[in-house]
Amino acid sequence: SSPPHHTTAVPSRHLPPLPSGQRKQQLRAEPTMLPFLLSLLLLTGAAAGVQGHDDAAARRTMEEFAGFPASDDGEGGRASPLRVDSESLQRQQIDELASFSDSPAPSVTRVLYSDKDVQARRYIKGIMKQLGLSVREDAVGNIFGRWVGSEAELGAVATGSHVDAIPFSGKYDGVVGVLGALEAISVLQRSGFQPKRSLEVIMFTSEEPTRFGISCLGSRLMAGSEELVRSLKRTVDNHNVSFVDAADSAGYKIHPDDLHNVFLNQDAYFAFIELHIEQGPILEKEGIPIGIVTAIAAPASIKVEFEGNGGHAGAVLMPASRNDAGLAAAELALAVEKYVLESGSIDTVGTVGYSAATSRSYQ
User: Fold this and answer.
1) Going by DSSP bridges, is the β-strand pair 156-161/134-137 parallel, antiparallel, or unpaired?
2) Residue 277 parent element (H or E)
3) CATH superfamily of 82-286
4) Where are the domains of the chain?
5) Which residues contact 268 (CB under 8 A, 6 or more apart)?
6) Residue segments in the chain with a per-residue pLDDT below the cut of 50
7) Could you give phi then psi for residue 137, rounded to 5 degrees?
8) Beta-carbon neighbour count of residue 350 at 10 Å?
């Protein structure tokens, strides 16, 4: 999926190990987390600093941004350098969250409002509370954990992602943006920082379209989509369970009119930044540990149905008598590929994601 709010990407070598014999891949937290941490520091402003040669420039930049000197005061003297607990992040959090799955490891399946989704939500809220964040949920289950800043009246800086997972997916998609954000707050707290602006971690509901065919459900509601509100009032899944009933099964007692309460005021946040896996090979191929997204994918899809004429495989001859729908569909798929390749665009993708053929026989 391609969420509408990615700002930071991590190379695809951090994707989870796959059962197909591909090489084992590990999340390397510190090289990718440090730019993310510094981005949060610059966005929120800081009342404390870090020590060390490499951190001196960051300290000066933060002092300029915050408007006052970084303090060395605090328990135990100077604040500690920024250090990510990568072992805990990987083994105790990412791997543990991956265990809440309806498919066997190393894959993850966590569908909206399922029992595993509810367990994952409880797990994320538990970490937020351990960090002393103020935790709340809205009507559809978007989860917010806020670290209140020294100037709480200012618009907050938000970060986060999602933890729902399409069937048989990896364990890092979305999860890095949520657990990575919580670890970033933990690092800043351990280092003695106090933000000027409040810092809020958001776990968005239903980034993936798995259950109801609607992607970015929680974030689109937060953005004020009236069209989505109307759609959710009549949406059902493949088992004819309505969105409202599915939410109720997960503990969210929704009245259709409550969906408007998810909408945010335009000045609710000062900025949003997200840490996310790249989901592609470019950064890995170039040997670049982290990149800043300058544009996002804008996916659009259409469904095309081809109808042909059935006939005996041997007795109905070509070309005058045969009209095979499958061949026509294949020609369209090739035409889509040809058009994109000849467009000259380096970042346009055209693909046929799903095809199915059925036959009818007549006596």
Assistant:
1) unpaired
2) strand 275-277
3) Zn peptidases (3.40.630.10)
4) 82-286, 300-362
5) 155, 156
6) 1-29, 46-54, 64-80, 363
7) -130, 150
8) 14
pLDDT at position 88: 87
As a whole number, the mean pLDDT across the chain is 82
Q: Say which CATH architecture domain 300-362 belongs to.
A: 2-Layer Sandwich (3.30)
In this predicted structure, what is the pLDDT of residue 199?
95
What is the value of pTM for the model shown? 0.76
How far is 43 from 149, CA to CA, in rounded Å? 12
- Give me the long-range contacts of 43-46 (CB less than 8 A, separation at least 24): 43/157, 43/197, 43/270, 43/271, 43/273, 44/149, 44/157, 44/195, 44/196, 44/197, 44/198, 44/199, 45/149, 45/195, 45/196, 45/197, 46/70, 46/193, 46/194, 46/195, 46/196
Whether residue 206 contacts residue 163, with contact meaning beta carbons closer than 8 Å, is answered with no
- How close are the terminal C-alpha atoms of the chain, in Å? 45
Cβ atoms within 10 Å, residue 65 = 14
